Amino acid sequence: MNKKPDKQSNDAYPALLTVVNSLDALIYVADMDSYELLFVNEYGRQKWGDPGKLRCWEYLQKNQSGPCTFCTNKHLRNDEAKPTGVYVWEFRNTVTNRWFQCRDEAIYWPDGRLVRIEIATDITERKQMESELDAARREAEFLAGIDPLTSLNNRRAFSDLGNQLLKETIRFKQPASLIMFDLDHFKQINDQFGHESGDEVLLHIARLTRETVRQADIVARIGGEEFAILLPQTDLEQAGQLAERLRQTLMNNTVNIKGQGITTTASFGVISCDPECDELRLDQMLADADAELYKAKNAGRNRSVCR
Ligand SMILES: Nc1nc2c(ncn2[C@@H]2O[C@H](COP(=O)(O)OP(=O)(O)OP(=O)(O)O)[C@@H](O)[C@H]2O)c(=O)[nH]1
């Protein structure tokens, strides 16, 4: 039902306008179909200038040839073009480069048409603080050696633990091997199901890997979708067998993502070090395993290549 303004609100209009113009937040009203701006408060005029006859997407954003792709109008009314209530979201404005929390709602304008009203509060400082806290948390986790997503060792811990293990390997003239693997066409999973689903798949792979290797093996996520396993007292043949077992485990286990069973394959590079050598460098072993992994990718993926 369209509400007509009553006498009381007409009398209060100048005072209400003063209130709206005193707020430390952008308030604007735009026609939901033509995007015509019907009102911009003083805060908006100070930051974005005089709206003139500009439409909301021309006035508030830059470099756009049409309505914003992220326009929230679709969330504000239902299939019968009736208002659906308040929609809150966060956005970095392309003109001011500042972050805003936006509270959008479709309401009926006095002439009966449906308009969007947005109240946008600058939250840039809060966002900065959140991102600094996030960076500090990541740094602390990195220093602690844990990959925050999978709880496997990160590259730093892999390097510390791995170099320690290699020293022992040389001292006791034992064999050691390194498996490096990288998921195949992982980008497609992110693209099709979203980054969060991609993260779930990585978690699933980490779980399967840990379940497949021995306690003494050092497992790490050393890059986005790249993993490494350092195997003490393991020769090339044994490491090759383990890589094959893990490859088949990944191939034969599905993970449920958004109601769909997803199977991920991976390509493996496997190398072994000479038990008689005098020096072993983990970074060189990683580079060698990476070269074999590269061959596995080039040969068609979902395979392991041993050197
Ligand atoms: N979800 C998620 N994706 C990640 C993470 N780290 C890296 N990625 C994604 O992994 C993908 C890697 O893509 P590419 O390097 O093209 O490799 P690929 O699609 O697996 O293809 P091939 O390796 O050639 O088989 C990219 O889409 C990255 O965004 C992460 O932590 N989480």
Q: What's the arrangement of secondary structure elements?
A:
Blueprint: H1 7-22, E1 26-31, E2 37-40, H2 42-48, H3 56-60, H4 73-76, E3 87-92, E4 99-108, E5 114-122, H5 124-144, H6 155-171, E6 176-183, H7 186-193, H8 195-212, E7 218-223, E8 226-232, H9 236-252, E9 254-257, E10 260-263, E11 266-273, H10 282-298, E12 304-306
Parallel strand pairs: 11-12
Antiparallel strand pairs: 1-2, 1-5, 3-4, 4-5, 6-8, 6-11, 7-8, 9-10
Helix pairs in contact: 7-8, 8-9
Bound molecules: guanosine-5'-triphosphate (GTP).
Concise description?
The protein contains ten helices and twelve strands. It is α+β, with helices and mostly antiparallel strands and 307 residues long.
Q: How does the major sheet shape up? A: 5 strands, antiparallel
Mean pLDDT: 93
Task: List unreliable stretches of 5+ residues.
Answer: none
Strand order of the largest sheet: 2-1-5-4-3
What overall geometry do the principal axes of the alpha carbons give? elongated
Integer count of domains: 2
Summarize the structure in words.
The structure is a single chain. This protein is an alpha+beta fold and 307 residues long. The protein folds into 2 domains: 7-126, 2-Layer Sandwich (Beta-Lactamase), CATH 3.30.450.20; 145-306, Alpha-Beta Plaits (2-Layer Sandwich), CATH 3.30.70. Helices cover 42% and strands 24% of the residues. The chain contains 10 helices and 12 strands. It has helices at 7-22, 42-48, 56-60, 73-76, 124-144, 155-171, 186-193, 195-212, 236-252, 282-298; strands at 26-31, 37-40, 87-92, 99-108, 114-122, 176-183, 218-223, 226-232, 254-257, 260-263, 266-273, 304-306. The strands form 3 sheets. It has a 5-stranded antiparallel β-sheet with strand order 2-1-5-4-3. Strands 7-8-6-11-12 form a 5-stranded mixed β-sheet, sandwiched between helices. A two-stranded antiparallel sheet has the order 9-10. The chain is elongated, with a radius of gyration of 29 Å. It starts with 6 loop residues before the first helix and ends with a strand. The mean pLDDT is 93. The chain binds guanosine-5'-triphosphate. InterPro entries: Diguanylate_Cyclase, GGDEF_dom, Nucleotide_cyclase, PAS-like_dom_sf, Rev_trsase/Diguanyl_cyclase. Its EC number is 2.7.7.65. This is diguanylate cyclase. It comes from Thalassolituus marinus.
